[in-house]
Amino acid sequence: MLHLLHKSAPLRLLLPCRPPKPFFLPKASRLGRHPLFPRAAMGSVAGDASRLAYPPVRRDDSVVDNYHGVRIPDPYRWQATARAALVFLCFSRLGCLCLCLSPRRLEDPDSEETKEFVARQAELAETVLAGCPDRENLRREITRLFDHPRHGAPFRRGNKYFYFHNTGLQAQSVLYMQDDLDGKAEVLLDPNTLSKDGTVALSTYSISEDGNYIAYGVSESGSDWVAIHVMSITDKQPMPDKLSWVKFSSISWTHDGKGFFYGRYPAPRGGELDAGTETNINLNHQIYYHVVGSDQSEDILCWKDPDHPKNTLGASVTEDGKYIILYIYDGCDPVNKLYYCEMSSFPQGIEGFRGTQEMLPFVKLMDNFDAQYHIVANDGNEFTFLTNKSAPKNKLVRVNLKNPELWTDVLPEHEKDVLESADAVNNNQLLVCYMSDVKHILQLRDLRTGNLIHQLPLEIGSVSEISCRREDKEIFIGFTSFLSPGITYRCNLTSTVPEMKVFRETSVPRFDRTKFQVKQVFVPSKDGTKIPMFIMSKKDIKLDGSHPTLLYGYGGFNISLTPSFSVGRVVLCKNMGFVVCVANIRGGGEYGEEWHKAGALGMKQNCFDDFVACAEFLISDRYTSSKQLCIEGGSNGGLLIAASINQRPDLFGCALAHVGVMDMLRFHKFTIGHAWTTDYGCSDKEEEFHWLIKSYALLQSHSWYKPATLQYVLCASNEDIPQTNPIIGRIDRKSGHGAGRPTQKLIDEAADRYGFMAKMLGASWTD
């Protein structure tokens, strides 16, 4: 669920990405290392007689690592692309398309040898993709369906409303403002003017309480690095402010409108680095306060922790403007420390700390990583938190800062459903969102007691965004589902029974939702655990095993795959007769922290077993056959795909792996990869090294395959390798890990990957 940045929210340490929510709302880009994907295996495009010619890859057999007494050759360290190729064992007849959105996380991305390798891989991929007959049909139809107006939920600052809007095919969505909801809207900030190709994206933003200023962060070509700028809203004139070396940061204004808190890393020593291609490990995150109109060199250092350089920090001003809250994370687990500082206690305000060696006098309310604590509301020094402390499905608790030892439950943990969010609204009420079997439920409750007031009417689907503040008597709720591209509800909370009215509804041309169906099944995994899976198809299909089928999964980092609309998947069902499935495997957050932990660290194999069980169900229930089944996943899901095709190559006819975390032994050494060890483990620790070797496919061996020689075998062997379809890497040099991609890139990528899939599965096009 997206919470619009209408109130200061804590920084949730960003993760290897999940599929994007329905369309366009800018979010801070998701963390991720970008290992490049494989060169192809020896083989032929389905139906062709010729074998593909693959670029040769240089080996360096002198590179051997010793992991706790186990020697691991690493002959392709000179460029991580080739090493990523080790993931895809070519001992089956499936086709594999690996999407690397940008070569930004190679160990030596700027070497000429690496650049040449990347260029040759891109050329090879284009040669194969150009031979996919339905590529242009897909591009044309996806473009047609994408070309529809989309709106974000409105929110209020000062005396104006703001919202995002995309006319259809604009590269990036545009921020508008208006005096009232029925008034004329005018453009405030158009990211499309920042670059010719749309690859400069708005990654974060925040508007001051009085509505006079907007601070916004932009990233180039998918980079995680952000530059923050400031604009005067009154005259739409840019301020001279530019803040560099910002990463994984929210923006939180003080209520006097003088400045804001943000997070950044120290500038690199020894000169400037390319913030798009450097791979240095990210250490020593810091919180600063910036005064509007001043130079970044004058910013006030509010907090740093050199004793714990891997921690990531987030700062948030409470809605009453009295406190600054510091959130501290040591990885991607839903746990954090929480400190607070009462800003009214500063004799000379925050600016009084400028030029001193003092940091802000934070009080350590929670100083260990035992649980998650997220502020919902405060009345003076009495705070309400959402937490998973002794409640893996989350609960609401209350504490008085003057008596921090006494915590009381406001809303106990639900027996089955996960408490996803809680927002204070209408002064003394709570808008609560539960997830029940991967579907959202909205309730209005009493803030003091937690008692239920009303359950808000909502179709089966997902709450995609919530626009609300505690003072609001009118709120806006975004909704989506597999068959609903988007509805924004306007909810009046002043009436006895809250009124939910459609404020805006997105309509997609050439799409009739009544011709499609979605159902949810629960599939027993290897150990008997029931795994939810959504299945979308045309209505009344005959279950005869003949349907091309796409199975998508993620399974990590407590991220849930809730129903959302996808133009590409709709086109697959509508024009190619696909069955499209989303598996909610363990490792995600669909049933709370226990579900997450059941697919993390030493339990990671459960993710792969769950995914395989869902694939086997689709075959046994005669939706499809193995030769017509394609699997897809991105980032952590890219790892899922790699492991699945290595462990069960007989089960699939095609695989699409996007920006996968592939090098499970060295990912923690680069950029923010160290944060992911909370889900994967770390090869530096002996026990966890053996988890990684056992669970992940990177270093498994098979009768004809030796991991250190895969590149050599694929390039030079004359053996009769039973791989008959191509394994290629589609590389986009200006997209990073995927956040902020312009619309045309989204369309082109979908046409390429689904065109490849259609050819591998033998699917045909119908208008």
Automatic annotation (TrEMBL):
EC number(s) per entry: 3.4.21.-
A Pfam family that the UniProt record links to this protein: Peptidase_S9
Residues in Peptidase S9A N-terminal domain copies: 106-500
A biological process term (GO) from this entry: proteolysis
Cellular component per GO, a single term: cytosol
Keyword Protease: yes
UniProt keyword terms in alphabetical order: Hydrolase, Protease, Serine protease
Domain Peptidase S9 prolyl oligopeptidase catalytic as annotated: residue spans: 563-707
Catalytic activity: Hydrolysis of Pro-|-Xaa >> Ala-|-Xaa in oligopeptides
GO MF annotation terms: oligopeptidase activity; serine-type endopeptidase activity
Family as reported in the entry's similarity comment: Belongs to the peptidase S9A family.
Protein name: Prolyl endopeptidase
Species annotation: Eragrostis curvula
Lineage start: Eukaryota, Viridiplantae, Streptophyta, Embryophyta, Tracheophyta
